[in-house]
Write a structure and sequence with these properties.
two-stranded antiparallel sheet, 6-stranded mixed beta sheet, alpha+beta, about 35% helix
């Protein structure tokens, strides 16, 4: 893909996808060069009042200020070594896994410190400490930790999407063709999500996809038989009983 710069001798594209954690579906998608920055797309994906959940790759103190100015919330994991200047300390439940909850200025003064205060929540899971910066002051620290945990749903979606819908194998190399392939995969997933929810009241699963695939194949065989046979006979439990010779 000559249009998609990545590094010398390698051309790769990058997909920036907004995944709706409330509904479990992809919502917005953008395409860029493989060496393009990720952080600017947060403002393009989020709408005012929404909360973006991001990993450490999106930590940028100037962006934290920008998102707050735009009225967009965030729950973003940050590096443990990030300098924090406390402005206010929130009360912590001694029986919870929360060990830190404070309003701070992030970063080094005069270098990369935030202009707007942010809330930092620290919690531990299986002896691993997590530090999360957020603009949500209306939620408990435990809920902030839970929100960040939901980010794993994004990884599950991408793994399932690439594996079972086979979108990882590229059939197009130009920008337009690649976007068509990505959109086709996303539309297929959305249709599956609608089917699984309306017919079975559950999330997308490979079990339902296989059942649907078999059903479509059987219906296609039946339709083809009826077109080629003037007297198709009977069809019972997907077994054809035909009096065509």
């Amino acid at each position: 893909m000559h249009w998609a710069d990545y590094r010398k001798g390698s051309q790769k594209a990058k997909v920036h996808l907004g995944f709706d954690l409330n509904r479990g579906i992809p919502r917005k998608v953008f395409l860029s060069n493989g060496n393009g920055a990720d952080r600017p797309f947060v403002s393009m994906i989020l709408s005012p009042g929404e909360t973006g959940v991001t990993d450490r790759g999106y930590q940028a103190h100037d962006r934290f200020d920008q998102w707050q100015e735009e009225g967009k919330h965030f729950v973003s994991r940050i590096k443990a070594s990030t300098k924090k200047t406390p402005l206010k300390t929130n009360e912590i439940d001694p029986d919870s896994n929360i060990f830190y909850d404070a309003i701070v200025l992030l970063g080094t003064p005069g270098v990369n410190q935030t202009q707007k205060p942010v809330r930092v929540v620290g919690y531990s899971v299986n002896n691993i400490k997590y530090w999360v910066a957020t603009s949500r002051h209306d939620l408990t620290a435990e809920k902030i930790a839970l929100i960040y945990k939901l980010r794993w749903d994004i990884e599950i979606f991408f793994g399932w999407w690439k594996r079972h819908l086979r979108v990882y194998h590229l059939i197009a190399r130009n920008e337009y063709g690649l976007m068509v392939q990505i959109l086709a995969g996303l539309i297929t997933y959305l249709l599956l999500a609608i089917y699984c929810r309306e017919q079975h009241n559950e999330k997308v699963s490979i079990k339902r996809v296989r059942e649907l695939r078999i059903r479509i194949q059987n219906e296609t065989l039946i339709a083809n038989s009826r077109m080629t046979c003037p007297n198709p006979g009977l069809y019972f439990e997907n077994h054809q009983i035909s009096n065509c010779y």
